[in-house]
Protein: Cytochrome P450
Amino acid sequence: MQLWSWESLLLLGLVSIVTLLLFVKVLFGGAGGLQGRKAMKLRLPPGPRPLPIIGNMHQFGDKPHISLWNLAKMYGPIMHLKLGSQRLVVVSSADAAREFVKVQDKVWAGRPLPPGADIFKENIENIVWAPYGNYWRHLRKICTIELFTSKRLESFRPLRTQEFSQMVRAIWDDSQQGKVVDLAVKISHLSFNNMTRMLLNKRFFGVNMSGQEEAFRFKELNTRFLSLAGVIIIGDYVPWLKWITVVTDFNKYMKKVKADVDDMLQEFLEAKKNGKLCMNNELQNNDSTTPATAANKNQNQPDDFVDILLRQPTEDGTGHLADSSIKAVIQDMIVAGTDTSSNVVEWGISELIRHPEAEKKLQEELDRVIGKERIVTEADIPNLPYLNAVVKETFRLHPQTPINLPHKSIEDTTLGGFDFPVNTILLLNIYAIQRDPKWWERPEEFDPERFIKNPEINVTGSHFQLIPFGSGRRQCPGMPLGVLFVQMGLARLMHSFQFSLPATASA
Ligand code: HEM
Structure:
């Protein structure tokens, strides 16, 4: 099935706009309608002039982070735009970001509805899209005190070690057989396995795995679902153009993807409840890093996330978390936590290949601290400053959400001398912030040394010039896991292999 791009929807929308433009102009008297009069009283930030009906939608382009960055160079770090009738504030500097998500953290902790929410007409149960309120707070609390504690993450350490060893082994085996190794696929499967083992105690990809087809289907469905989250649906912003998604069958497509993902998650949940989802022992027995017997495997198996979620109460304490909420959380973790993490490792490797002096330096550090006789462990990470610098520099140049997930104001507010009515959408241009020459010398260059000189700058959300996980109440709850995955991914790969460009390729 073809995925509809927002451009094609926009094109269809424009056709109808042309025919209706005249009518609307007469009806609302140009900019003098109620919206217009209200806007005149508000002190709004500068920004490009919106067109009637579509607002600034045409200025987003196919790389909105770049288009918005270019606009910010003209209009400043706090910029006002419109998507249809929806107000947006686009923030492109670290100082302004601090004001919005630290000083006014709570005011901007809302989320707009996800794309196409109107098509589904269901309560939103995902953490990612849940409105700011009791339900979202309850799920975040479960994340903080149950799922992402250091103790819990530590309990999954042997499992992560196994998965990393399996990846290294698979790359080695393929290369020994003269096969072309698709590193991106290997890292992506590793990330998926890592996550599904933590979530469901289920491993999808790898040698002798029976469920490859199921795995590809699940992963493909999730990828489709993720791509839908980034689509701009014209009817969400121009309500009288909702019919476009009906005539183009786009709403049917969205419903089908959502239903397929839901069916699959329901299957996993049922299997889990009936004790039918279980790791096979083949991995354990193949792995040289963990002493293995069938008996100690079951004994050592930590509770997975679904085990924990099944024990959680509802937010009002009257029962257990509904299946629909548990499925939404599983989906959040897979969609938000797998490709994001593996993409950063892939970018890190590609930057190191293009900068052989940095690759050499990292390998010398690994050889000096770990040596050739043992593998890198998570306990080694604090002793690897150059690795940490490479990781931060990769997060800086390659943020996985170049424009942060949208936030929304939950009340009227004033900031920097500007007025923002309730329900204004906030977009942080992380890409622009992390390349701002005010903070970064030669910002386009991959240069881990900048973090050797300033080791105190980190990604945890208190240095606003580096916020790949966002900051404030809505900050990524999976950050500790994401960072660990990238650190270990780069360390294990760089400790095990020498990467270089083929003689015919250029950096
Ligand atoms: C390198 C890896 C990752 C990156 C770069 C990343 C980045 C982000 C960013 C930028 C946000 C939006 C923050 C905001 O709205 O201000 C976010 C939200 C979120 N992330 Fe991550 N993330 C990563 C890994 C993970 C992992 C491993 C998980 C879970 C297992 C996860 C789960 C979530 C969830 C549930 C949210 C929504 C939070 C909310 O709305 O309250 N992420 N992530």
In short: Confidence is low (pLDDT under 50) at residues 1-37, 280-297. The chain has 23 helices and six strands.
